[in-house]
Amino acid sequence: MLKKRILTAxxxxxxxxxxxxxxxxxxxxxxxxxxxxAAAWEWAALAGISELPGRLVFMLIxxxxxxxxxxxxxxxxxxxxxxxxxxALWWLWMSVELFSLKDVHRGMFAGASSRIAGGFLxxxxxxxxxxxxxxxxxxxxxxxxxxxxxxxTADTAAYFAGSFFxxxxxxPQVSPGKTREGVAGGLxxxxxxxxxxxxxxxxxxxxxxxGWIGLSAVTALFSVAGDLAxxxxxxxxxxKDSGSLLPGxxxxxxxxxxLTAAAPIFVLGWIxxxxxxx
Length: 278
Fold this sequence. Notes:
With 278 residues, the chain is an all-alpha fold. It is 78% helix and 3% strand. The longest helix is centred in the C-terminal third of the chain and has 32 residues, at 206-237. 41% of the residues are buried.
């Protein structure tokens, strides 16, 4: 399984990085839309839409709303602020719920309608946030790449730290394999990443550097919430993976779950950070 995951990553990551550097912004937005479409297809099944026509309708409606939002971001970047406010509050609520409710079948995803609505709140804002970073960043795709590497670093470091040192379960009712020690390891790795990139790439120092590290740490914590939220959805659906499209990784949703929470939180924090650091 680990070998398949590594091989899949070796194939996909260079292609994604090359696309970020060489494709026009609109085409990158379309590429991200393809991933969102695959994730929406998987989400529909997890939400309880078993018939293929229903899953197709869900995916197309979600893509339609997402495409409208992407066009809004491309033409008026400040459009992103009110759009991301609601999902940011939703992720705060979800984060509290994941650790407070002992019964996985209660709360946010208890009903089919809430699971369906959750797909829109999870997938569309992440799509818009990543496109916004391409539009608003003067040195794009540097900030977007940092966000992606941050999420990958947090996930990978948490996996190895949890494997070697994990003892205390983080949210056993949702994901028995995750530990507090693993999250701590991921957080330490992200802080080091933010410090290195902040000093070498952005030349931050003093309070600005601390603010950048703080934003990165908060983003990493929310990436854990994104992972756990999808785990909760899969546990309710009674499945191990969201799909089987990516060998060794499961489905597309399994690979972008952490990013779905991290992206909108990071973008809102990045906007506030730039205004504060100006």
